[in-house]
Amino acid sequence: MKKIPAMLLLLFSSIAGVSISSLWAVAAPAEVTFTSSYTGFNNCRPALTPAEVKEAEAHGSDIPQRCKGVGNYYVYEDYSAVSRYKYIKSAGNRFAVALTPKEECAYQTYGDKVEWRLAGGKPFAVIIRVRCYGNQPDRDGNYDVSQNLKAEYIIIRGLKGFPTGEDIDLKKTENANQLARDIADKLYKKP
What we know:
- The chain is α+β, with helices and mostly antiparallel strands.
- The chain is built from four helices and eleven strands.
- The strands form two sheets. Strands 1, 7, 8, 9, 10 and 11 form a six-stranded antiparallel sheet that branches. Strands 2-3-4-5-6 form a five-stranded antiparallel sheet, with no helix packed on it.
């Protein structure tokens, strides 16, 4: 689009009887459209180089996974003893956000997909289900994780430049999926 010099714009507007503010109103951007895109965890690869994988295997270490997300973002899965952690990183590792509930969990498991909230086709937030387990022993003194479910959440996390978001307790919330989208969309601020 060719720029019009300010003097010509003033001259044109006075001849045509059009105010400059109404000219700017015509050029104002349209409302942003919010949509969702979904990714799973079946398109994942080791997050290490082949040499690092070989070294990790030699030491009995777990190998973190990197899964394709949306745009320049990836979902990483890392392991620690019996726990696994997911987090989002941007290409070039300039941004990272953990996908862990705000409540402390001894162990957590994740839903099978990530919902990416998009504004005008660009990702700005993620939504994922997380089950949070405690580490209380059963009557026999065994630590059976499946018997220690503390809570199940939908967590909302902002991507680079956007606020963190919230955790929604699924037991206490009706229409939690739609509420999560509404919360995510409120995180969006026009650049």
